[in-house]
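User: Fold this, then the next.

Assistant: Folding the first:
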Amino acid sequence: MLTASGLARSYGPRDLFADVTLQLSLGRRIALVGGNGTGKTSLIEILVGDAEPDRGSITKPKDMTLGYLPQDLVDTATGSVLEEVVAGAGEMAELTEELHRLEAAISDPDAASDPDAYDTLLAQYGNVQSQYESMGGYALEADARKVLAGLGFKDTDGDRPVRELSGGWRMRVALARLLLAKPEVLILDEPTNHLDVDSVAWLEQQLAAWPGALLFVSHDRDFIDAVADRVIELAEGTALEYVGGFAEFVVQREERLQRIEAAAARQAREIAKVEQFIDRFRYKATKARQVQSRIKTIEKLEQIKVPERKELVARFAFPEPPRSSRVIAEFNDATVGYGEIPVVSDVSLAVERGQVVALVGPNGAGKTTLLKLILGELEASAGTAELGNNVKTATFHQHQADELDLDKTVIAAFSGGIDPGKRNMRTVLGSFGFPGDAADRMVRDLSGGERTRLALARTMIEPVNLLVLDEPTNHLDLPSCDVLEDALTAYPGTVLLVTHDRHLIRNVSDAIIDVRDGGATWYDGVPEEILMPADPSKVVAAGTGLSHASTGGERRTADSGASGNRKTARQASAKARQNTNELRKRVQKLERALEKAEAEVAELQAQLADPDIYDRPEDVHRLATLHDDAKDRAVALTDEWEQAVEELEG
């Protein structure tokens, strides 16, 4: 459908990428990944026609339909939520408008005064209605409401004016409009940024079955694995394509780097031998011709460049936080809302020292409201919510990166107002991905993801014992998400975390608070059914108030001596969950490989069943050998798959 060839783009003196070639065809679902500042958004803007490449071309059919969801929405919507979504349905929306116009004209009392004109009007209405019905028009509004429900809207939200919504909810309206329109090519830039866990799971289902071409940017490993059948990485100044999901991408990228490193090492050894020959015989007349030949060979040789491994390696040494009471935060029958309307009611729970607790649930259910309540930014209308003794807090909110001083350097913005103590601020900043000269860059020159990482670093370095983080992974690239994960694992204090990143939740959390339907439910550990509901479009409410799923509804308490071992237990638990995730991905990879092997066996059997093939004995022998090899491969894969399934079930 859309082909890009030899695209190149520069930003001032800096080359973002060159010679980028990719193809978006029907049924292909591509995840675009790469570090912050590598040019992912710039490439997308070129593909959708919002920017011109410095070099290269884009080929696409004239009648091709393309839908695009940018990170930052330029919103011009004036209608209701439902009207804006339905308006995206193209020809169907135009027919809807025409049908409403004709209905209004027919119902006009003066219309019947001219019988001929009225008959013409009725005939037009009949034709439009027939076309509308044949195209499924009467199901359009129902389909729009289903999409809106999947993205977290209540049924009553359909009549709300879009201009009254927050930026995140307007982004959801734009996404719903695209999903209903079903363009042939769909391009999404960080579509999960403003979604909750339930909506992310629902969107996965929709995009995994997307019939058209799909290109999306995401830092969510689970989302990429569930949706993509290809991964394109912007790295080394160009685009590198890998077949498979995120798990396959990681393996293939490592294998590729190892091959390049091995080839570069072989080449270096060969060059060393040649240089040794040149040095040895440079001044020997009988070897002059051979020496000159070798010198020219080296000069013409294109040396293999080994890509830099730019993974951010975090080394954190947080200061021990001030000693606090065992209970860090406690809610007792707390009810909180805005005005007289309660958002969350009858919440009773306690967060203890050293825990990392993730708050999940639909947007608008009250996760941020609960955080504001415990921080004293809101008052409870009933019950109480209190911090423990000597609890010092630091908070990160979704738009904190926008509050950085653009005219400061990274090191100045990071260290301002902090007592460094015995810590070297540049060393600490390097742990968050700003090593060496990167600390002296101006904040205004950072990408959106780099600013988010800097704001996170500024928050997490505060000498406090309670971190409150609200959607910290928005706009972060994958290496930066790894840095955040390592930092939260190493952090010695307590963390309250709101995020839709299921990989992060699994790897750092001790417990989950599921906030929905006006209540809050506590779960020890990380139940997979909360992160991945069986049917995301029909998420069953967990009830109101508090119940502890793992302890029969009783409030969970801990021995005072257990807090010292909690960090070790969390790391062990995270490692165990990671092993299970890797095993699950291995099973999926083996299933795909087995399907491919079985298809190859079937294809070879079909060729061997052709009577004409036996007139060519050499082809029969070749096909029989290939068939035996394919069968052996399928049998071996079956055994390996069965073993992996048994390990996973165990």
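Now the next one, as you asked:
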Amino acid sequence: MPPQVSEAPREPAGSSVVRRTLNRVADPSTYRPRPGEIPTDPGVYRFRDGHGRVIYVGKAKSLRQRLSSYFQDVSGLHPRTQTMVRTGASVEWTVVATEVEALQLEYSWIKEFEPRFNVKYRDDKSYPYLAVTLGEEFPRAQVMRGAKRPGTRYFGPYAHAWAIRETLDQLLRVFPVRTCSKGVFHRAELSGRPCLLGYIDKCAAPCVGRVDAAEHRRIAEELCDFLGGTTGRFVKRLEQQMREAAAELDFETAARLRDDLGALEKALERSAVVLADATDADVFGMAGDELEVAVQVFHVRGGRVRGQRGWVSERESADDAELVQQLLMQVYGAESAEGVPREVLVPTPPADADAVTALLSEVRGSRVSVRVPQRGDKRALAETVTRNAQQSLARHKVARAGDLTARGQALADLQEALGLAEAPLRIECFDVSHVQGTNVVASMVVFEDGLPRKSEYRRFVVRGDATDGGGAVDDLAAMHEVLTRRFRRHVAGPDAGPVAGPDAAAAGGEVPAGIDPDSGKPRRFAYAPQLVVVDGGLPQVTAAAAALEAVGVPDVALVGLAKRLEEVWLPGEQFPVILPRSSEALFLLQRVRDEAHRFAITFHRQRRSKAMTASALDAIPGLGPARKAALLKAFGSVKAMRAASAQELGSVPGIGPALAQTILDRLAAGVAQGTAAVNVMTGEIVD
């Protein structure tokens, strides 16, 4: 078994897979498996909808007992579970050998398929971390948010970014690790001069060779040790060095060490001592109602609170033990061994406490204790964390009430204004971007339930003839091509019929057309939206409608949003639909359109930047791919090459004096030509 849960195989060796599939209907009894088909062994099960998407993943000690509970009396289930079984169209299960394997496989599938009915603990805000990039040659300390990256150690989370910067500023006196960006570091290497922090001894300045890579890494690792809770040895070391310097009458060094010691003590004061026995533990608190649950966790290292984090989630089950188990798997499933503490204090024991303890111990590499604190300081701290969870839930409800109401109202208003049969829960918007017909690209953004679904965003490079006879860009042809390419993928899947998967023979069923039979994931562009939005007026809508008709997608609603007066155009209509300026529906359409425009512009700028760099160097004779790569590595951009001298260009390997002068002349001529062209466009006369 692999050491980390995230690396678990999708289906463990020796497991068996069984599927029970029928067409999607509202009554779950129509796809209910016969009790004799379901084994009594431990395993993991998946519910799929009519399109084949995984909507729920669960595990059970006895598959027969657990799956039968979903089909006995649907009215007795939790409301969320009722919706799940009525949305489902099939159920399948995988038998494994042990409960630990089942727990591991369940987490792996939840992470892979992101089922909509599984509990997802999302941060109630974006917490900043103090990160040290140990994966780089010269590690860097910086403030980071978002997803964690491999090769980087994280400390926190902190309540505010300024708290990280103040703490780091104190620690740089003792641990002068690099904090600059790659660009600043590279410029310092080229110039041979360090930045300000290097001059005031708050950086070891590896950029100019004051320390080598090994020494700088040692400094970064000591900083990580201090932040990780090993503080005593650094304080004792500074005290010893200060006494030795004073004994040798080196009072200047002793004074500097005294100030360094004060900086460490000031940094330590920022984290309160909560457990006197220097315990390493994560303390969880939970508060919820029938619909939602809020979770808070205090990260205690060396007896001090090193960070705090919170989540708010929809409640899937009334059983808190099940929620605690899923929470621990999501928090620690993707962590490295150093992220799992020796103690995990929870408000309720997880449902399979032994299996969870065994799995966390395996991830950490040593024994982990998962328990409920009963008395003393740990119980008092757990009560404090629970109070934080209660306050977090109250704040969330106040903020979410308005948000949910606005999104629901926007979708309802759109349905009514456009005459749709159902609310447009999935909206796709397309936009074309170019500059005078060059680097023509397009974007597709997706909003689900009124919120952006960035994992579904797509970018297109327009490949067809996107210009008219006069050389101007034909936006309509570009829009027609992009929509044709997008919906051809959708039409090809369902029309091809069910695809037999590798387990179809054993399962006695077929893999739905929208699902890749090898990976089990949804195919790209496999599902149609309820509403397509294009950026533009009636001409763009007409072109889009022609593309949908040509591909054979008649059941998707289509509108265009014109920028000038924010008019909503429908295919074949002579006049637009005018939505009130205060309408939530108009606000949602504007958000979707603006996001598509932003995404298209970003992609266009990336391609234009690469094309400009490549074209400027491609026109220079004697400059092949290897030499161009060497120049870009040394200078970073064409602009920097123009500012360089012939001697600096000639110092690059493969660039001689004659070629260096040719490069300067050609780049200067290119700037002059570009200026002339711009001035002619603005009406100015250039000699």
